[in-house]
């Protein structure tokens, strides 16, 4: 029965595809798409994104590592999970997660699982995000820590009980989409089979493949 509720690949014909913008992180193209239902055509603007990873790092006391980061586009300082772009060509998702947890959280983890895979906003972008669960946490020594810049130069780290974060999400106090997903997925996994029942850290992820990571 579970197979009924499963995303599947499907690609409608593209009549034309015109590049509009090419930036440091994203690019934008305009596609004219032909419907596989009735043959009609329509236009869609697509934000091309390298993808990202996020990490729910949880310690032995069931506290989750979060950062407080200024986000210019929304004009808020948000409570977020450590996360980052898959902007290193050829880097596996798990390696990217190790890197981001080290850089943003100043910790390393010995045990990894896949918590969830998500398209961030499939109506406008191809961004695919893999959310990992990380345990077996150890601190990075002060003299080995990564020095952030720009927004990441002022990004305090906190350890918050998982149950408290769940309530913050449900109360609308935590609004970062991937952080909400990760927190609620971790809570669900904790109470439905346990963390050890989650997928292996190198589980297949077809949606996470792109020419940039080939």
TrEMBL record:
Domain called Nudix hydrolase: residue spans: 47-182
GO molecular function annotation: hydrolase activity
Alphabetical GO CC annotations of the entry are: cytosol
InterPro entries, alphabetically?
Answer: NUDIX_hydrolase-like_dom_sf, NUDIX_hydrolase_dom
Does the record's keyword annotation contain Hydrolase? yes
Q: State one Pfam family annotation.
A: NUDIX
Q: Which Gene3D superfamilies match?
A: Nucleoside Triphosphate Pyrophosphohydrolase
**What Gene Ontology terms for biological process does this UniProt record contain?**
nucleoside phosphate metabolic process; ribose phosphate metabolic process
Instruction: Identify the keywords attached in UniProt to this record, alphabetized.
Output: Hydrolase
Report the PANTHER family cross-referenced here. ADP-RIBOSE PYROPHOSPHATASE, UDP/ADP-SUGAR PYROPHOSPHATASE
Q: What is this protein called?
A: NUDIX hydrolase
What is the species listed in this Swiss-Prot or TrEMBL entry? Phytoactinopolyspora alkaliphila
């Amino acid at each position: 029965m579970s197979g009924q509720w499963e995303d599947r690949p499907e690609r409608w014909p593209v009549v034309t595809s015109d590049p509009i913008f090419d930036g440091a992180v994203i690019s934008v193209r305009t596609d004219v798409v032909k419907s596989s239902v009735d043959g009609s055509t329509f236009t869609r603007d697509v934000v091309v994104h390298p993808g990202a990873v996020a990490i729910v790092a949880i310690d032995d006391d069931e506290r989750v590592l979060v950062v407080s980061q200024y986000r210019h586009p929304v004009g808020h300082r948000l409570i977020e999970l450590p996360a980052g772009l898959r902007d290193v060509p050829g880097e596996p998702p798990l390696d990217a997660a190790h890197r981001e947890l080290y850089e943003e959280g100043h910790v390393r983890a010995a045990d990894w699982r896949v918590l969830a895979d998500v398209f961030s906003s499939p109506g406008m972008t191809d961004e695919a995000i893999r959310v990992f669960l990380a345990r077996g946490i150890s601190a990075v020594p002060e003299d080995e820590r990564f020095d952030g810049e720009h927004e990441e130069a002022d990004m305090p780290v906190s350890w918050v009980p998982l149950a408290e974060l769940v309530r913050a999400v449900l109360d609308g106090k935590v609004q970062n989409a991937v952080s909400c997903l990760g927190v609620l997925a971790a809570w669900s996994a904790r109470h439905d089979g346990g963390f050890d029942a989650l997928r292996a850290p190198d589980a297949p992820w077809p949606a996470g493949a792109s020419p940039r990571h080939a």
